[in-house]
Amino acid sequence: MYKITLADGSFIDNLGLNGENFISEAPVDKAFFDSAKMNVVTITCDDPEAEFGTLTIEDAVLAKFEKIGTETFIVLREKTEAEKKQEALEEVLTRDYDNIVDLQLAIVELYEMIINA
After folding, report:
1. Strand, helix or coil at 104?
2. What are phi and psi of 31, to 5 degrees?
3. Total domain count for the chain?
4. pLDDT over 90 at 113, yes or no
5. Residues 42 and 31 in one domain
6. Which residue in 58, 31, 29, 23 sits closest to 42, CA to CA?
7. Which residue among 37, 71, 77, 94 is least packed, with the fewest CB closer than 10 Å?
8. How far apart are CA 95 and CA 88, in angstroms?
9. pLDDT tens digits, 2-39
């Protein structure tokens, strides 16, 4: 059986594996895979004959989450370089946008001080 542990220590266990699909027979909420907790994901297996004992994925994303009947199929993968660059760009743009808004507010306050003087 397999176990997926997220960066904050939360985990789901008793997972089967079919190809790249981890299969849970217990209910799993998609919100469990919050992107803030996916920067380091560890997958472990207690079966000595398994393909791997421990696998660590850095910057993981939820590639597939599908409920079929009572089972949930989960596929995780590492972010591509393009996805990492896009996130970094979005972060810079958001930070710069906040700075521009702060500057605009400061100019408005200065203008109001001048016309009220």
Report:
1. helix
2. -65, -20
3. 2
4. no
5. yes
6. 58
7. 94
8. 11
9. 999 999 999 999 999 999 999 999 999 999 998 888 99
